[in-house]
C-alpha cells in the first residue's frame, strides 16, 4: 500500500504566509520559515510554498523566502508562483526547492513542461492546476491566481502535461479553496484516474476527515493550509485519523 503524504501549504506574499478564500481577501498567517519548521516537527512529509502574488504582479518568485524555508526544513520542498522559464526554475532549485510547480506559464506555453523535465527531470517538474467547475459539467483550468478562466479542460490538460513531462499534478479546486467545504472528490477522482503520476489534492479541507476522503478518492498526497495555520489540527492529528481509516501514512 502506498503511503499518503500530508503536505502543509504556505501561500506567501511579500515574505509572509497569507490565506484567503478563492485566492482573495488574504490575511496574514505568520512567518514562512517558522511555520515550515513547526510542520516539519509535526511529521509533515513535504512543504509546498506558493507565491500567490508573483504572477498577478508580473514578478518572479522571492527566492530569499524560499532559501529561508529550506534552511528550516529536513523534508522535501515544492515551490511555485512566478515561474516563467528555465532560469526561474533554476533559481528556485538553487535556493533549495526540490520541485518546482508551474501553472500559468505552462498553459501559455505547454512546451515549458518538456523543457523543465528535460533540464531538471520529471521528478522535479510539477504542473499546478487550479480547476473550476463548468456549469455544463467538467472543470476548466484557471490561471493568474484565479483571475483568468481558460477554455481548457482540466482533466485533458493534466493528461497532456504528463505526456509532456510533468511528474506530479498539484490539483486545487478553485471552487473549494479556503471554503472548508471539503475537497472536490469528483475532480480528484477524475484526474487521478486519468494520469499515472501522483496527484496532490488541494482546496477545501476542514479537518482530518476531509484529507482522508481525498486520499480515498485517489489523491497520492493531501494538501491543506488553514487548518494547520490556525492550529486547529496538527499533521500528527491528521495522520492518526488516516491510520484509523486504514490509510498508510509515515509516522
Description:
The chain is of the alpha/beta class and 251 residues long. It contains ten helices and twelve strands. An eight-stranded parallel barrel has the order 1-4-5-6-7-10-11-12, surrounded by seven helices. β10 (168-173), α7 and β11 form a beta-alpha-beta unit. The chain is globular.
Structural class label: alpha/beta
Give the overall silhouette.
Answer: globular
The total beta strand count reads 12
Order of helices and strands: EEEHEHEHEHHEEEHEHEHEHH
Offer a concise description of the structure.
With 251 residues, the chain is an alpha/beta fold.
List the keywords.
251 residues; alpha/beta; TIM Barrel; eight-stranded parallel β-barrel; 10 helices; 12 strands; 34% helix
Which helices and strands occur, and which strands form pairs?
Elements: E1 5-13, E2 16-21, E3 24-30, H1 32-42, E4 47-51, H2 63-71, E5 77-80, H3 86-94, E6 99-102, H4 104-108, H5 111-120, E7 125-133, E8 139-143, E9 148-153, H6 154-164, E10 168-173, H7 185-192, E11 199-202, H8 208-216, E12 221-224, H9 226-229, H10 235-244
Parallel strand pairs: 1-4, 1-12, 4-5, 5-6, 6-7, 7-10, 10-11, 11-12
Antiparallel strand pairs: 1-2, 2-3, 7-8, 8-9
Helix pairs in contact: 1-2, 8-10
Amino acid at each position: 500500500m502506498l503511503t499518503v503524504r500530508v503536505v502543509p501549504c504556505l501561500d506567501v506574499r511579500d515574505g509572509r504566509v497569507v490565506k484567503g478564500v478563492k485566492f482573495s481577501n488574504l490575511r496574514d498567517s505568520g512567518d514562512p520559515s517558522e511555520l515550515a519548521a513547526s510542520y516539519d516537527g509535526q511529521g509533515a512529509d513535504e512543504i509546498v510554498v506558493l507565491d500567490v502574488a508573483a504572477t498577478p504582479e508580473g514578478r518572479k518568485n522571492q527566492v530569499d523566502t524560499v532559501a529561508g524555508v529550506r534552511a528550516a526544513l529536513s523534508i522535501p520542498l515544492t515551490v511555485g508562483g512566478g515561474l516563467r522559464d528555465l532560469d526561474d526554475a533554476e533559481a528556485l532549485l538553487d535556493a533549495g526547492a526540490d520541485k518546482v510547480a508551474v501553472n500559468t506559464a505552462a498553459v501559455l506555453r505547454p512546451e515549458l513542461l518538456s523543457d523543465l523535465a528535460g533540464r531538471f527531470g520529471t521528478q522535479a517538474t510539477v504542473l499546478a492546476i487550479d480547476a473550476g467547475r463548468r456549469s455544463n459539467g467538467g472543470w476548466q483550468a484557471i490561471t493568474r491566481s484565479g483571475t483568468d478562466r481558460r477554455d481548457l479542460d482540466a482533466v485533458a490538460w493534466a493528461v497532456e502535461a504528463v505526456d509532456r513531462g510533468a511528474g506530479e499534478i498539484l490539483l486545487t479546486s478553485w471552487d473549494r479553496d479556503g471554503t472548508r467545504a471539503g475537497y472536490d472528490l469528483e475532480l480528484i477522482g477524475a484526474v487521478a484516474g486519468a494520469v499515472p503520476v501522483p496527484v496532490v489534492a488541494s482546496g477545501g479541507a476542514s479537518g482530518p476527515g476531509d484529507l482522508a476522503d481525498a486520499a480515498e478518492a485517489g489523491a497520492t498526497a493531501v494538501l491543506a493550509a488553514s487548518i494547520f495555520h490556525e492550529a486547529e489540527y496538527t499533521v500528527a492529528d491528521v495522520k492518526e485519523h488516516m491510520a484509523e481509516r486504514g490509510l498508510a501514512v509515515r509516522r
